[in-house]
């Protein structure tokens, strides 16, 4: 068995070790990506609204 | 300090300054932690290579309790002082805490199957951790369950504060009840009982998970602050619209 194969086999526990790490990566990565996306959307919405209100104010008598 | 806690704009400036540092520190710690956990730390003499699950399981379980304690403290502060920023901290924490709890349960299951021969057992540690997941989900559900957001916020914060009893129950469940789960081997009065080669990567992962939480907390609080600013602007628009129409 090559060094890589034996590393991947994890002494016969590969089917439990690798899913643990993969799942941790997916869940924490998912939390990070969705949180950042939500922040970007909120920034865009706020900027658009500020732009809109300043335009209204400029046109106000 | 008080200014940062009470003033959203001061908090936003601090958050913008701190978050690249937190992101960098988290990336370094988690890369180093995973490297040490997979390549450097030794296999356990009884559990062999399956012990490597510990490095993602234990920090997730610690964070599930840490986040809950933080959420309950912030929720309690929001109830007592009516500080919107405190409630935002609790609200921002809940989904992250739920994610850590889910990971603790899932990786525990993946560790339990080869070691205990069962994916799941209804023992004190596992059951109390599952209840913690439901507390997080209950907070999220209650927070948005009312038409009046302040009512929802107060109901959710009350649940968070009451649910804090679960934290010591989970921590000491392995001592109070007979269980398949092993007792504490790091956070114990007489000091850690695991070898340094395992303790160091475990602590690096735990600190990395903590800075990850703080980083995501800042991002999520920034979102909630932006949304609050949007609501305030819209309300002002509606008011000025009425005044213009009069």
CA distance, first residue to last residue of chain B: 44 Å
Order of helices and strands of chain B: HHHHHHHH
Tally of alpha and pi helices of chain A: 2
Distance between the termini of chain A: 82 Å
How would you portray this structure in words?
The complex is a heterodimer of chains A (61) and B (246). Chain A has 61 residues and is mainly alpha-helical. Chain A is 87% helix and 0% strand. With 246 residues, chain B is mainly α. Chain B has a domain of 164 residues. In chain B, 79% of the residues lie in helices and 0% in strands. Chain B has eight helices and no strands. The termini of chain B are far apart. The model of chain B has no long low-confidence stretch (mean pLDDT 91). At the A-B interface, helix 2 of A face helix 3, helix 4 and helix 8 of B.
Topology:
The complex is a heterodimer of chains A (61) and B (246).
Chain A: H1 3-9, H2 14-59
Chain B: H1 2-6, H2 8-40, H3 54-81, H4 84-116, H5 124-143, H6 149-162, H7 166-176, H8 196-245
Helix pairs in contact in B: 2-8, 3-4, 3-6, 3-8, 4-5, 4-8, 5-6, 5-7
Based on the model shown, name its key terms.
heterodimer, A: 61 residues, mainly alpha, 2 helices, rod-shaped, B: 246 residues, 8 helices
What's a quick, concise take on this entry?
With 61 residues, chain A is mainly α. In chain A, 87% of the residues lie in helices and 0% in strands. Chain A has one domain (3-59).
